[in-house]
Amino acid sequence: MNNFTPGPPRARQPAPTVFCYICGRQFGSKSIGIHEPQCLKKWHAENEKLPKSKRRAEPVKPDAVIAHDGKVDVEATNEVLWKNSQGLMVECEHCGRKFKEDRLEVHQRSCTSDNPAKRVGRDRSKSQKR
Ligand SMILES: [Zn+2]
Ligand SMILES: [Zn+2]
């Protein structure tokens, strides 16, 4: 039985997408409600893995931006949510670049205190020439 029966045709409106204030990914307005608690859980799990000095306070969801007509300004709200997620990134102790927690773990496989990844931008240390 390989016959795939498509469901009844539906008028498909493009689902409005919302940014997750924690991870910065986009979700449909329905799935964001499912995702956010899970994402927060994951955030806590990742946060607990960090050394105590690096742990942060739980992220707070920014308020929705209300437009002049009293409705939620989806675009402006998304910008606030996305910016919030960017502010949650963790600085790599070796190279100083900022990453999401899960990315940092991957990054630090190749970036170590002995051999930090090349710093992009200004070079704060005296150049060591051999
Ligand atoms: Zn998320
Ligand atoms: Zn690094």
Account of the protein in words:
- With 130 residues, the protein is mostly helical.
- The protein has a domain at 17-88.
- 33% of the residues lie in helices and 8% in strands.
- The protein is built from three helices and four strands.
- Strands 1-2 form a two-stranded antiparallel sheet. It has a two-stranded antiparallel sheet with strand order 3-4.
- Strand 1 and strand 2 form a beta hairpin.
- The longest helix is centred in the N-terminal third of the chain and has 19 residues, at 31-49.
- The radius of gyration is 21 Å and the shape is extended.
- The chain binds zinc ion (2 copies).
- Residues 106-130 are annotated as: Disordered.
- Keywords: Metal-binding, Repeat, Zinc, Zinc-finger.
Features:
4 strands; zinc-finger; two-stranded antiparallel sheet; two-stranded antiparallel ribbon; 3 helices; 130 residues; C2HC/C3H-type domain-containing protein; ZC2HC1A/B-like; 8% strand; binds zinc ion; mainly alpha
Can you lay out the helices and strands and say which pair or pack?
Blueprint: E1 17-19, E2 26-28, H1 31-49, H2 74-87, E3 90-91, E4 98-99, H3 101-110
The structure holds zinc ion (2 copies).
